[in-house]
C-alpha cells in the first residue's frame, strides 16, 4: 500500500456534520447506525460524516475509503470544537473543505465575536 492510499480526506468530499452530540465510545458500527437511522444516509464514497462528543473536545470522522470504512479521531488538548448552525433539515450541517479543516484544527470558521462598545 502506498502513502497516497492513506488519509483521503480531500476537498472533493462532501462533509456532513451530525448536529446531535454523540457518545464518543461509539465505534464504526455505532456511528454507521446513526448515519443510516438518524440522518437517513449511508456512508458512500464522496462523503465524510463528522461527529462531536458531548463535551466538544473530541470529533470522529467516518469515511469510506476503497473497500472499507475508516474512522479518524481528533481530540483537542485545550478548548472546544465550535459547532456551526444546522442545515434546513436540522440534523446535519454541510461543511465545505475549508470549514472542515478549520473545524479539525479547532478554529472558528462560523462564529464571529461581537465587540462591545461603551456608549
Question: Overview of this structure, please?
Answer:
The protein is of the alpha+beta class and 119 residues long. The chain has one domain. The protein is 18% helix and 26% strand. It contains 2 helices and 5 strands. It has helices at 28-39, 97-105; strands at 14-18, 47-52, 58-65, 68-75, 92-95. A 5-stranded mixed beta sheet has the order 4-3-2-1-5. A hairpin with a 5-residue loop joins β2 and β3. It is globular, with a radius of gyration of 15 Å. The termini are far apart. The relative contact order is 0.21. Mean pLDDT is 84; it is low at 111-119.
Question: Which keywords apply here?
Answer:
alpha+beta; 5-stranded mixed β-sheet; disordered C terminus
| Biggest sheet overview | 5 strands, mixed
How far apart the termini lie comes to 63 Å
- Number of helical regions: 2
Return residue spans where pLDDT drops below 50 for at least 5 consecutive residues. 111-119
Count of β-strands: 5
Whole-number count of domains:
1
Q: What proportion of the residues form beta strands (DSSP E)?
A: 25-35%
- Label the structural class: alpha+beta
Global geometry: globular
| Average pLDDT taken over every residue | 84
Strand order of the largest sheet: 4-3-2-1-5
Encode the helix/strand succession as letters: EHEEEEH
- Nearest-angstrom radius of gyration? 15 Å
Relative helix content: 10-25%
Amino acid at each position: 500500500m502506498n502513502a497516497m492510499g492513506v488519509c483521503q480526506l480531500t476537498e472533493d468530499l462532501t462533509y456532513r456534520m451530525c448536529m446531535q452530540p454523540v457518545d464518543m465510545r461509539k465505534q464504526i458500527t455505532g456511528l454507521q447506525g446513526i448515519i443510516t437511522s438518524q440522518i437517513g444516509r449511508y456512508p458512500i464514497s464522496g462523503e465524510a460524516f463528522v461527529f462531536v462528543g458531548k463535551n466538544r473536545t473530541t470529533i470522529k470522522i467516518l469515511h469510506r475509503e476503497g473497500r472499507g470504512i475508516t474512522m479518524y479521531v481528533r481530540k483537542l488538548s485545550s478548548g472546544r470544537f465550535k459547532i456551526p448552525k444546522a442545515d434546513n433539515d436540522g440534523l446535519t450541517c454541510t461543511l465545505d473543505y475549508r470549514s472542515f479543516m478549520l473545524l479539525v484544527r479547532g478554529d472558528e470558521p462560523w462564529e464571529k465575536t461581537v465587540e462591545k462598545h461603551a456608549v
